Amino acid sequence: MRTVKDPDVRKQEILKGALKVFAIKGYDKTTITDIARELGISQGLCYRYYASKEEIYDAALEEYANYILTSNLKRFNDDNRSFKEKILSYAGNLKEYRKPETDNEELYELFHGQNSQKFHDQLMMNIAGKLVPYIAEELKKAKESGEITISDPDTYAYFFVYGQIGVLLNTQHDPNSVKKIQDMLIELLNL
Amino acid sequence: MRTVKDPDVRKQEILKGALKVFAIKGYDKTTITDIARELGISQGLCYRYYASKEEIYDAALEEYANYILTSNLKRFNDDNRSFKEKILSYAGNLKEYRKPETDNEELYELFHGQNSQKFHDQLMMNIAGKLVPYIAEELKKAKESGEITISDPDTYAYFFVYGQIGVLLNTQHDPNSVKKIQDMLIELLNL
Amino acid sequence: MRTVKDPDVRKQEILKGALKVFAIKGYDKTTITDIARELGISQGLCYRYYASKEEIYDAALEEYANYILTSNLKRFNDDNRSFKEKILSYAGNLKEYRKPETDNEELYELFHGQNSQKFHDQLMMNIAGKLVPYIAEELKKAKESGEITISDPDTYAYFFVYGQIGVLLNTQHDPNSVKKIQDMLIELLNL
Amino acid sequence: MRTVKDPDVRKQEILKGALKVFAIKGYDKTTITDIARELGISQGLCYRYYASKEEIYDAALEEYANYILTSNLKRFNDDNRSFKEKILSYAGNLKEYRKPETDNEELYELFHGQNSQKFHDQLMMNIAGKLVPYIAEELKKAKESGEITISDPDTYAYFFVYGQIGVLLNTQHDPNSVKKIQDMLIELLNL
DNA sequence: TATGAATGAGCGTTCATTCAT
DNA sequence: TATGAATGAACGCTCATTCAT
């Protein structure tokens, strides 16, 4: 059975299948055959679109990180909201990154498997790195407008992004974790 | 050339060699042969002391994490110091975890290689997890003594540990990173 | 040099090559590399068709046992022959199991090597186990028709099959062994 | 802890320990370390008395085969018994080879393990080979004395020894197997 | 474009054997 | 004589990658 598809569609499709398998089994334990079987294609085809397994992995991780970031920033960039609203909502956003509205719902469950820890951490780190500039930007604006008093917005940005991830990473099963972070932020920033 | 050594010495020696190679090349790319060659022993000998490559890796990571933690806590547990002193010094301590006084100096340079990112991250995560309880403890004491006003010390502990690591991780080449963190902490905690 | 073949053909081919090498060197001393080299293929290919060395061995032994059994039963099941004819011919059949009419002629010589003793024994045991039910069936028919007088056909079946194998095994180089067995059978069963 | 023993005692001791482990685990899966551990000695010591693992195995198998043979022949060689008594008792003897009177009782259970099949078969084959001459001798005497009428005692000897083993091998759990063989022998030989 | 049979380098691991003590 | 740490060759097996179809 030989199905011909538009190259761009195929490329995207491979990424999606790879993402799922990598998330379940982790990089090492995932084979190209696994990915091909997941998609119902041959291994050879993967190599028409990506030069190596590593390239597929990187692309898949990047893709997913961007996807999460984008859906989070949608709410974050809403200029009608105050700094306080934005900064407080972001903890909740991050927590729910695993509940995408679209067709990735099945992934939600995957990240609770044991094998996905490393993937999970890497994803978090990737997202955190991308998120920092946006938070820094907000902090700078808030500083200029006098809403908050801080010395170095960049340091704060790193600190807040990674700090929140740390809390979320370690309190995954605490339903109040978001609330606790928000309380803390209010205290710390005198909001 | 056959050199017989005390089992405990050998076991430790293997850990040290493994640590170095893992740090340089990362888990996957490191082979048992690499480790054996590094130490000038046969691969078979590694398996006399550890059951598998993974066991060696875990032991090496754990060992190093404990080493760093211990040397940091030495200063941290000094009860003559005030809360402020302790909390401010800890950022500096963490930053210098790669400059042990003893014989691990050679490792210092290793962590800048490209392949060590994953190892580095895992090490950080491991240390962070171990560190949190101590920070939480200090925060609780400071809260009770009225030095600071915070709602939930546990959340703060995660937040501060991971937040600081995030800053350090991303500003490795900024000589002022410690100073910046300290300034931020003073502001945030009104110290 | 890459030769693509039909999977079924390849699978059979591997079995045949494996059979030869196992017969020469025995299970332990045979490596997958040996088998691959014998066939002029890569070791990896063996694992595409069989999950392990043991699986290859079992399949090869089984295959050959069935082959011998089938060619023997062809003559044995000829209902035009009397019980006496059948039971006497079977010793000769078994002796000649190593002289297949088709393309296995080369195997004939192999079973005289020193290393093949274990393989040889196992093959014999396997065939014997498969043969017993047929002999038992014949004995039951002959008992019912009054051709012979025996108490327990099943016991006789085991006894006769293994007994004959024992003789053949130990008199491989005696050209009269078949004749001797036949004489004995005539005496024992008063045929 | 270093225990010095008489060389001959040690050599015998090693054989006994090896026998046990080989019987349980089979040749391949048994390591020299296993044997050494069983005996509470070092692996190195095994090599002072035997040149290789295979030599230990062969010696152990041979030793045990001889042991069983000897204890069986004790009863068999009793010249006060008639041919009929001897030939009928031998099936029972063989069946009980695994119940030695002395200190090998523990071995009795071992031969029921899954791994011991090959060892078991080899042992049987070995014993059978050794037993044939004695049976042949008895048959010749009986033929000369007119107790039985047979053409070629040697062929009969192989046939009877292997035939009986075949029955015993395949009816291990039938408590009447010995009785069935004896009935058959009486019929076949008109005893 | 797509398939999947075939390759082959390389891995983790085992263990009979050696030898410094 | 006895130990057991050390060796190293070899094994079974995996899998990213290639290529004939």
What is the N-to-C order of secondary-structure elements of chain A (H for helix, E for strand)?
Answer: HHHHHHHHH
Helix coverage percent of residues of chain A? over 70%
Give the count of helical stretches of chain A. Answer: 9
- Tell me the number of structural domains of chain A: 2
Low-confidence stretches of chain A: 98-105
What is the chains' assembly state?
homotetramer
CATH class of the largest domain in chain A: Mainly Alpha
Strand residue content of chain A: under 5%
Structure classification of chain A = mainly alpha
CATH topology of the largest domain in chain A: Tetracycline Repressor, domain 2
Assign an overall shape of chain A.
Answer: elongated
CATH architectural name of the largest domain in chain A: Orthogonal Bundle
* Rg of chain A: 19 Å
Query: Largest chain interface and its two residue counts?
Result: A-B, 36 and 35 residues
> Strand tally of chain A, please?
0
Largest sheet of chain A: none
Determine the mean pLDDT of chain A.
Answer: 82
Cα separation of the termini of chain A: 62 Å
